[in-house]
Amino acid sequence: MADKILETLSRLFGLLRDPNRLKIIFAVGRGKKSVSEIMNETSLPQTLVSFHLRPLRESGILSTERKGAFIYYSLSEPALIDLLISLCGVSTKGKFKEERNFSCPPMSFMKRWMKGGD
């Protein structure tokens, strides 16, 4: 496997190594969420949620949408949930709007990292 691909995967897993970031990713994997909704779903304090949202947003894993005074976060690539779930062999039945079948198309944020952009 090419060094560039291994480096990119290492960066992705480095970003995801914190359990709180994974909690946030799974929370927004169910749909767009505001910071307060993420806090409620993850039981994390606001400062910790905000601390982790920044690198997830800057990396391209999360996207944002402003509605009035609120910013809503969502996964830029819903297939990331499929990948994470497949790694731990957990069923998503009943946890998301629809049961997901694993598929892992090239993710746009991974393509961006492969080109060397952050």
User: Strand-residue fraction?
Assistant: 5-15%
Helix content: 40-55%
CA radius of gyration is 14 Å
CA(first)-CA(last) distance: 22 Å
What number is the mean pLDDT? 82
DSSP strand tally:
2
Regarding quaternary structure, what we see is single chain
Compressed to H and E, one letter per element, the order equals HHHHEEHH
Characterize the largest beta sheet: strand count, sense, and whether it forms a barrel: 2 strands, antiparallel
| Spatial order of strands in the largest sheet | 1-2
What class do helices, strands and sheet pairing give?
mainly alpha
Shape: globular
Low-confidence spans: pLDDT under 50, at least 5 residues? none
Helix count equals 6
Summarize the structure.
This protein is mainly alpha-helical and about 120 residues long. Helix content is about 50%, strand content about 10%. The radius of gyration is 14 Å and the shape is globular.
Question: What would you say this structure looks like, in words?
Answer:
By secondary structure, the protein is mainly alpha-helical. Helices cover 52% and strands 10% of the residues. The protein contains six helices and two strands, in the order ααααββαα. The longest helix is centred in the first third of the chain and has 13 residues. The model has no long low-confidence stretch (mean pLDDT 82).
Descriptors for this entry?
single chain, 118 residues, mainly alpha, two-stranded antiparallel sheet, 10% strand
Please outline the helices and strands.
Blueprint (H helix, E strand, L loop, with lengths): L2 H13 L3 H10 L6 H8 L3 H13 L3 E6 L2 E6 L3 H10 L19 H7 L4
Antiparallel strand pairs: 1-2
